[in-house]
Amino acid sequence: MSRVTLTQFLIEQQRNENHIPADLRLLIEVVARAVKTISVHVGKGAVAGVLGSAETENVQGEVQKKLDVIANELLLHANEWGGHLAAMASEELEGPSLIPNRYPKGEYLLVFDPLDGSSNIDVNISVGTIFSVLRCPEGVVDPTAEAFLQPGRTQVAAGYAVYGPSTMLVLTVGTGTHGFTLDREFGAWVLTQPDMQIPPDTREFSINASRARLWEAPVARYISELQAGTEGPRGQDFNMRWVASMVADVHRIMTRGGIFLYPLDERNRKNGGHLRLLYEANPMSFLVEQAGGVASTGRERVLDLQPTGLHQRVPVILGSRNEVERVVAYHREAL
Ligand code: AHG
Ligand code: MN
Ligand code: MN
Ligand code: MN
């Protein structure tokens, strides 16, 4: 059986007519290597004493888990050494992390959510890593937060790793969304799901329903229609799934379709939403669009938002085209 590895895939992407630059290919390889190391740590669990809280607080006001801190350090150290970056930004850091002078610098900015779904670590449920690659604005030497404030449509690559029963890396460089599975014996990423496609229709939705009383009218209407099943206006039953690790919920949608919503609600309105635009919404929206899905805030395309802050939060509604478009239409009608 001939297996295409991540390295082969990226070299072919570099050679074909869409040719990604060599330094972007090498940058992605460094990220993939760091992710492999995170996967080892996540996989050891209690044996390595990596579960539980670190008892520090991050800039989001969250108590960090030990693995939030470990994953963040692994990504920072692997990538500052790599030579292709001007700076990095992370969910776990207040401001940009610059490249130490002892290392060469490059033209890209790397943005990441080192450990997504960290409330699930201690209960042994899938967690992940999300990343996004932007070009550093021309002439900027030591990038400040401002350099990162680019609309998601300018991303040159994005991906997530999901540490589940198997470890997977799902990647886009703007030529479709492609899934790789980690072969633990060989240490290789094997292309197992080329050109992933999100089906346009679905009977599965994903939302934290404990917040139902806080939703805006268009979301409340949409979800109640789904819950009404065969007796409601949709005339069919819908199933619900909520892992509370965005990577796992999005990965399910990438695999078999679905709609994911973390909408604006009465309580998160003061923050602009729940999920982070740069670390979560933009990379996931790029991956979803490249797989034929749609990603919106309910009011506009996620990838068209002009970011105003590194840690900005936004509403996110993404997945199967026809369902997301329906929710967007309900917003248009109501607001
Ligand atoms: P993180 O663990 O990186 O802070 O992200 C958590 C996010 C996301 O993964 C998930 O979809 C959502 O928060 C879960 O929110 P609830 O706690 O409301 O379920
Ligand atoms: Mn967090
Ligand atoms: Mn997250
Ligand atoms: Mn996180």
UniProtKB/TrEMBL annotation:
It catalyses: beta-D-fructose 1,6-bisphosphate + H2O = beta-D-fructose 6-phosphate + phosphate. Keywords: Carbohydrate metabolism, Cytoplasm, Hydrolase, Magnesium, Metal-binding. InterPro entries: FBPase_C_dom, FBPase_class-1, FBPase_N, FBPtase. This is Fructose-1,6-bisphosphatase class 1. Coiled coil: none annotated. Residues 198-331 form the Fructose-1-6-bisphosphatase class 1 C-terminal domain. One of its GO terms (molecular function) is fructose 1,6-bisphosphate 1-phosphatase activity. Mg(2+) 2 binds at D113, D116, E280. It comes from the Bacteria. Belongs to the FBPase class 1 family. Its cofactor is Mg(2+). Its EC number is 3.1.3.11. It comes from Uliginosibacterium sediminicola. NCBIfam families: PRK09293.1-3, PRK09293.1-4. Pathway: Carbohydrate biosynthesis. Signal peptide: none annotated. The lineage of its organism: Bacteria, Pseudomonadati, Pseudomonadota, Betaproteobacteria, Rhodocyclales. Residues 5-194 form the Fructose-1-6-bisphosphatase class I N-terminal domain. Binds 2 magnesium ions per subunit. Substrate binds at D116, G117, S118, S119, N208. Pfam families: FBPase, FBPase_C. It is found in: Cytoplasm.
